Amino acid sequence: MIVTLINQRLEEAEEGFMRVKLTLALVDRPGVLLNALEQIALNGGNIISIIHRRDRITSGYVPVSINVEFPDPASLERAKKGIESSGIPVIEAEALEKTITTMILVGKADVDTLLRKVSELGSKISALYLTGGAASPCLKLVVEAPHGKLKPLISSLEKLAEEWGSLLITEG
Amino acid sequence: MIRCIIVGYGFLGRKLAKEIAAHKIQDLKLVGIASSKGYLYKESGFKPEDLPEKIAEAQGFKEAPAFELISRELADLLIELTPTNIENGEPGLSHIRQALEEGMDVVTANKGPIALAYEELTSLARERDAMLLYEATVGGGIPIVSLQKRCLAADELLSIKGILNGTTNYILSRMHFEEMTFELALREAQMLGIAERDPTLDIEGIDTALKIVILANSLMNAGKKLNDVKIKGIRKITSEAIAAAKESGMTIKLIGIANEEELSVAPRLIKLGDPLCVHGTLNAINLNLRILGSLTIIGEGAGESTLSALINDVYEVVKARRISTSKNALNE
Fold first, then answer.
1. ipTM value of the model?
2. Contact A104/B244, CB-based, under 8 Å?
3. Which of B58, B191, B194, B271 stands the most exposed, by the fewest C-beta atoms within 10 Å?
4. What CATH architecture does domain B144-300 belong to?
5. Does A165 reach chain B within 8 Å, measured CB to CB?
6. Residue-range domains of chain A with CATH
7. Distance of CA A61 to CAs A29, A81, A83, Å?
8. How many CB atoms sit inside 10 A of residue B95's CB?
9. What region does A102 belong to: left with phi over 0, alpha with psi -120 to 50, or beta?
10. Domain layout of chain B by residue ranges
11. Among the listed ranges A19-28, B119-128, B225-234, which one has the minimum average pLDDT value?
12. Chain B contact for A131 (CB, 8 A cutoff)
């Protein structure tokens, strides 16, 4: 039973759970942290750890680092908005994990240029499959991108695909 | 008794006329039907047996533009069902504009006018205290506009994502399950009447783009035009691409997206277990709301199911007018 649960959890993580370190500036007053935690829970966040940096109190604010797992980037964004609208500044939201995503490029492609572009944008290709032969080429890529880097990567690759007269299909 | 006219007497027009003539909605009578050739008018209201297959061959046919019929003196409600014109929305746009100016209520399944002139038409309706309902323009029988406006209006809609075109979904589904080429799946869809003889609007993603504009404007107050949508169709999708997606537990679907950042229509990879991953001619629409989170609604996106959206919009108008008449009577 426990093994099954652990396996399920791992599968969920592989399917796109993202771990994030949220750094908040809390007023040093009881109950303030609770507002932030409520927003995280409301948006499906699973809290892994909380660290109060009392050694770094500045002008009455305590930096608090919370490691959280969110089901998707939209949940993180909603939680950030919720926290900020309850009057707590979010200093930083740093991805602790990378987003792994699949893309398919239909049509011609210059693989060297593609690999260079992915690397230039701080990401890497972890798998690449070519099918269809010269008549109908099709390239499947599994790309690892740090959180926040995926969108610029996709728009750069879309531009390349357009130049080649090909079509880039990304996960929706 | 509310008097309605139907302008646009095609598949949907004929079906709806039969429903109204058979008094499926109380306090409503059908007094006029019009096609591009002319119209028929009957003050006492049409009975099912009075309804012709072709207007031009019926007794009492008047060869004149539908505009003659769109008058508050003759009717209270216009049901506008002429074909979608993406260039300028005509003739539907002028029909709707005239009806609203006359203070008539309007129900339509015509995407053109709503996608191209949403702001103008809704403010005209407000000005004239008229109702303008257009549920049937998006997602066939899926009550997406009513659902959001009546049940979710106080929540914040963050994004809309969906399969909004049954024809392309049929083609992509056949490519996925039967390993057909795009050309073969398209030809099959045309033989079955699912795809038009000229399928450009569907397969180039323009039909989906019109619907995403309607949803963005109507549900998110986005104030967008068709030109604001980044559109990619499905013509370049190959059997190899579908097979590559399948190997990764995914498939390719034509997805319309509206969010704060963009309006787009493009083929996208969708996990086979995703609630949006529906097949055949089905449509699926996902709303992402701040409080509720994710909500997906699935249903037939075209054909007779659109009749359900139309008849419910017509019923809404009749119900609202019945209530306002009773209120007026009480006040008097």
1. 0.87
2. yes
3. B191
4. 2-Layer Sandwich (3.30)
5. no
6. 2-95 (3.30.70.260), 98-170 (3.30.70.260)
7. 9, 19, 15
8. 28
9. beta
10. 2-140+305-331, 144-300
11. A19-28
12. yes
Write down the pTM of the prediction: 0.80
**Torsional sign, CA B191, B195, B200, B205:** negative
DSSP for B49-73, written as a single string: GG--SSGGGSTT-B-S-GGGT--TT
Read off the tokens for B275.
């609630």
pLDDT band with cut points at 50, 70 and 90 for residue A48: confident
Q: Residue B211 catalytic?
A: yes
Assigned fold of B2-140+305-331: Rossmann fold (3.40.50)
DSSP H helix total and E strand total for chain B: 11, 12
Whether the CB of A136 is below 8 Å from some CB of chain B: the reply is yes
- pLDDT at residue number A15: 44
pLDDT in tens, A69-82: 888 778 888 999 99
Residues in A closer than 8 angstroms to B239, CB to CB, are 136
- B51-76 tens-digit pLDDT: 999 999 999 999 999 999 999 999 99
Q: For residue A135, give the DSSP letter.
A: T
